[in-house]
Amino acid sequence: MPLIRTVLGCVMRHGLDADTFLRDLQLENAPLHDPSRRVDLAVYDQVQERAMQVLNDPALGLHMGEHSSPNTLGLLGFLLLSSPTLGDAIDQWMHFHSLVSDAEPSRLLPQGDQALFEYQFPRSTPDCNRIRAEFGLVQMAKLAGLMLGGTLPVTEVRFEHPQPDYAAEYQRVFLGPIRFGCPHTAVLFPAAILRQPLPSANAGVHELLKEEAERQLLHLDDSVSLADKVERYLLRTLRKGKPGIVQAAEHFGMNERTFRRKLEGQDTSFSELLGQVQLRVARRLLLNPALPIDVIAERLCFSEPSAFHRAFKRWTGQTPSEYRDSQLKR
Q1: Domain-wise residue ranges, the chain
Q2: How far apart are alpha carbons 28 and 199 in whole angstroms?
Q3: Pick the CATH number of 225-328 from 1.10.10.60, 3.30.565.10, 1.10.260.40, 3.20.20.10
Q4: What is the model's pTM?
Q5: Are 81 and 143 in contact (CB under 8 A)?
Q6: Are 131 and 166 a contacting pair, CB within 8 Å?
Q7: Chain segment 223-260, per-residue pLDDT in tens
């Protein structure tokens, strides 16, 4: 809901009435005041696309990011702000990201004396993907600057989508080199900044907020089935290597036999859930023509590209190349 309110903030800054905007979309205003309330991705799509239309602003994502604040992320925003270092804040973001979305976790990668923050977001239509990529990177750069007491020194900013007509807006917002059509949406910056003490750090507040974030995360998990929890677990861990069933069972505090039985009781299995997660991630990655298929196979922890080809063909009836071609022609 805080993300929906961010869109409404853009609408209201242009003198439009938020209640009228919501009524036109057949949405209610009252739930917006509950920060823990979640909405389906299709609803978020609808709100973003409509806002882009009524404001006639194709750069909506950039402008949303410019006007974002820690409150945009709710509890998580203030937890990041109170972190001792930027590296700690990014760790908290990756651990607690489920509080704001069901996307795959973002990740931080060393690149020599640079650090690469690879940003993940919920995927849907090309317009919404572009808006979320813009909003997310501007928001994170702005929040990082706020934590550092200045601005984040950006070495390079990378986007998956093609260069839009309003590319000059990116340069104005980021003050650094921008690349489009990249394999990932990411920002590159000096790694030394990760260890720099933050003037906004507050150890006491940080621990209190962290306890509350853990409580909310547990409550979020309580509302879903074991199968859903396993899917979230697999999305988080697949980037580090394919987890085995014993490792997964231990994560959920069970032995392998009990773990298998509980999943069978929900008409699924560990291998089936792993395949579903691999397919979900594969479909997203294949939409990026700049990402080679053998790299995708490696990211999904297949032993070799041919194994990925066989699995994808079994899941969808198409080869990865056929799927990519069919989607990019739409």
Answers
A1: 60-195, 225-328
A2: 40
A3: 1.10.10.60
A4: 0.74
A5: yes
A6: no
A7: 678 888 888 888 878 877 888 999 988 888 888 999 99
